[in-house]
Design brief:
The complex is a heterotrimer of chains A (about 325), B (about 325) and C (about 500). Chain A has about 325 residues and is an all-alpha fold. Chain A has 15 helices and 4 strands. Chain A has a single domain, classed as ABC transporter involved in vitamin B12 uptake, BtuC (Orthogonal Bundle). In chain A, a hairpin with a 2-residue loop joins strand 2 and strand 3. The longest helix of chain A has 27 residues. By secondary structure, chain B is mainly α. The N terminus of chain B is likely disordered. The N terminus of chain C is likely disordered. Chain C is built from 20 helices and 20 strands. A 6-stranded mixed sheet of chain C has the order 6-7-8-3-9-10, with helices on both faces. In chain C, strands 16-17-18-13-19-20 form a 6-stranded mixed sheet, with helices on both faces. A 4-stranded antiparallel sheet of chain C has the order 2-1-4-5, with no helix packed on it. Chain C is globular, with a radius of gyration of 25 Å. The chains are: A mainly alpha (about 325), B mainly alpha (about 325), C alpha/beta (about 500). The interface between B and C is large, with 34 and 47 residues.
Chain lengths: ~325, ~325, ~500
Amino acid sequence: MLNTLLKSRESLLAAAIIVLIAAVATRFPGFAAPSSLAQAFNDTSILIILALAQMTVILTRSIDLSTASNLCFTGMAVAMLNKAHPELPIVVIIVVSLLWGLALGAFNGLMVWKVGIPPIVVTLGTLTIYRGLTFVLSGGAWVNADKMSPAFIEFQRQSLLGIPVLSWIALLVIAAFWLFLRNTKTGRDIYAVGVNPTAAVYTGIDVGRTKFIAFCISGLVSGLAGYLWISRYVIASVEVANGYELNVIAACVIGGISIAGGVGSVAGAMMGALFLGLIGLALPVINVSPFWQLAISGAAILVAIILNARGEKTKGRLILKRATAA
Amino acid sequence: MSSETIQHRHLPDRLDKPLSAALRSWETLLAVVAVAIFIFNSFASPHFLNAWTLSDMTFNFTEKAIIALPMALLIIAGEIDLSVAAILALSSTLMGFAMQFGLGTPALVCVGIIVGLICGAFNGALVTGLGLPSIVVTIGTMSLFRGLAFIILGDQVYKNYPDGFEYFGQGYVAWVISFELVLFLAFAALFGFLLHFTTFGRRLYFIGRNPVSAQFSGVNVKRMKFILFCLTGVMSGVASVLLTSRLGSTRPSIAQGFELEAITMVVLGGVAITGGAGSILGVVLAALIMGLVTFGFGLLNVPGIVMSIFVGMLLIAVIALPILWKRFVWVLKK
Amino acid sequence: MAQASTISKSAPALTLSGISKSFPGVRALHQVNLSLYPGQVTALVGENGAGKSTLVKVLTGIYQPDEGAITLDGKRVTLSSAQTAFELGITAIHQETVLFDDLTVAENIWLGHAPRKRFGLIDWAAMNEKARAVLAQMHAAHIAPETRLRELSIANKHLVAVARALSIDSRVVVMDEPTAALSAKEINELYDLVALLKSQGKAILFISHKFDEIYKIADRYTVFRDGEQVGEGHLKDTAQNELVKLMVGRSVDKVFPKHHAKIGDVVLSVSGLSHPTEFENISFELHKGEILGFYGLVGAGRTEVMKALFGMTKPSAGTIAMDDRPLAITSAEDAINAGIVYVPEERGAQGLGTGLPIFMNVTLPSLKRTSKSNVLRLKNEFDLARRYTERLDLRASSLSQDVSTLSGGNQQKVVIAKWLAMSPKVIILDEPTKGIDIGSKAAVHEFMAQLVAEGMAVIMVSSEIPEVLGMADRVIVMREGLVTAGFENKNLQPETLVRAAAGIE
């Protein structure tokens, strides 16, 4: 039991996070204080939910490069909706952001499922299309804080039982993904398709449809993240989250999600995102220039891939009985 | 039944006439599209049909296209390099860093290219030596290389490059023909020759189609892939020299997003993202199309970001349409 | 279980009538009839390429037949997908386990029909519990439901596949060569399982190449040849010879070309070749003009030895010498340069650059010769490709045709042509006629005879006894990674080979 625990990527990553926190805390004890950690979680919330969505796609042997563009486009859409109709309740904003994102994700999924274009090509295309459409929609104009309604901005900052709504949303999304991937038929199909597509066909799983669902989920969550991002940084522009898709993928890779599909866990994706987020938060605390962050996350990605690959080595078939016994 | 009695059927080299095959090829379609956009542009703007305007247009794509050339080879061999823009940034930064020690233009160029080579070799070693998937390795090194540039330069800028350095990105060989364009065409010819007329190029297609069977046929798959990563690094270094020279300054955020544009050129040029198919001519035409579109929209005062919608749709459409067309024909036959 | 005995033995559980299935250029099944009875095991026998795999795929809903009817318990059914077939109670245990390595044992058993709790959520606790119960019923309680499948041996993976069949109230269980990669002890355990399935009244289709096994566990037989059903009946009324005759459809002597090549000096000598997990202490000599057969059951380690000779796997000990000079082979390139070439068993995956033209496939290893200082010379390539493909009577429209559009037999000719162009000293053919049509088979055999007549030495790995007996001068038998016997092919009986391969004293 202990042995499997030591081997699991999740525990390795958890250890890395604890070491990171402890190391920073030796010099700045405040860093490990519960309130500070809760703040760190809140700051990483958006990355966490995006990483979970990306993981769902990667599990099916696909990739979604359009996630940050979707976020940007949906964010602009709801910001403009709010500007035009400040009276609309937040629940409408959230529903619109979910549906808007879902539509964008469904387009990716349809191209993969019904037309058969490789996911990387489809989402490379929609990466530029969705961001371009943001420009078309907004005419290049920004939506600033003063144009957003107080409710729009304040919603995620409200405190519920001492925890901000943003963190609650992240916790809710984590729980939803955990339940979905572990306890629903579609969730298990997503794993099965990634582990062995041929066997999935033999088991009666529609591989294309499963990928479509994964892209829909990715779009749905990216849309939600769009609203959360815009109301957090209180500016909507074409430049929002430019290149962020690679941070999201990096969080997945660090979290032990295999790019070859079928392997990855909710805990892994969550901790991969937390790890990246914590590095960003720790650097200023220990007086390291923030310019180090990119290189450190790059190095972390490489270390993670090398460790993952080591764990994935399949044992060769044993023919010699002597070797089997040994 | 002995061998003498077997009636050998004579196998022709090919059934298609080379010309008719060429006419139906992807490259022909791209050429038609390029000409169409060219004509459209010349009607859309009275300034377009001017030698200097056309010359300016080429600067829109030469640096990215120079990276797209080795990228095409890499993708044909079934790998990918997302770190090219980061290599370019690191290479540019280190050239600026080296300049502070008073290095002259030739030495700076060497620095730029050698940094590219080292970065490419690092990618290649991780992919071939440790057997890791190139897409994740280069996502990692993309952050690492650009991160190193940020560590060295932070929010500073390197400027005031030595005399003569500006020639690479701003100089003209003759009349309106820029050095960048000549260099790009020379490299395109070189890579076209390498891919289509040498044993190295032939083996690349086999590696892309089926690396296991290539290995079973005695092809040293790992060594060839390593060489390709080095080549991609070197060409990123070359592009770095050109871009740095043209801009006359270096920031760590230089060439942000170049990798996706270079890959778009390659895929638009007809190279299969799954490996094993594609041509350099296609990539060159795709680069030209992207340059024409960017520039044409620019003449019409359409912002670059709207142009990117067009390129994105083009990318999906060129892959989707042949598939849908095949399906349509198949349905008709049924 | 009491229920099982009440089911009438005369009414078939599943009937196929007039099933046909074609692929471009291949008629895989033609007007096939098959009946499976509850509580009985029907053995399906036939040579490789007789249509057995296609039949399995039709039964499990992977392929849709072009014509014919399928009746389950008297009702006409359409197996439109794998899911439908499974839900109707037709389960299969495949030759190569098609399971999910990174999922747990329990999930492999219950995927697609997992126990649910409220809101339709999968109930993991119940799933593990029920998996434990099914495994216990099979006397396989040593397999923990929570284990990842990756960690199990092949035999245990088979048990999981059987457990999957038991997990639903399946009517029909298809077993496609389930004992091929198992040890003697594991095989006996599998026989017990078959008995268990029988006692539960399930109709079983058992595909096997091993006659002793068929007679041991099956009640009925049906024989396929070249996609057609050529006989069926009760095993207890049928002698083994009769089955073999039905299966082969011709006597061995007629089919295989007699070759009278002069056997010369030793070309290749291998001694003490070993690998940590695959094989041990392999020694043999190969002479000029000789066809050396390697016989054994699937998974005996023959292919692994050949890969070591070809530089694709690294042996841990032993020497390889050619013409009395020791060879250091660390890559396929080394082997090819030394004059050893290998026609792999998996043509598509290992032999061909699919999607590329015939001539490029043929000239790939010969590029050094056809090019000038690494610059391609297309004319040389076409000449070389034409010379060797025509010699093999390749059927294609042109040398630029995509190899993936060729039939299996013609693909094999392309692979062989590729190596002949290198003028090798030793050619290793791994299952050279597996899955190819009769006509191409004859051409490949004819060609092997020519090769040895020209003084080449041939190693032929084959699991088909008629082929081994018909072509080889000597036969080496392997079992579980070891050489267990060697024979001169003079009055060699099939039974001798089977015994040596199966380890029966």
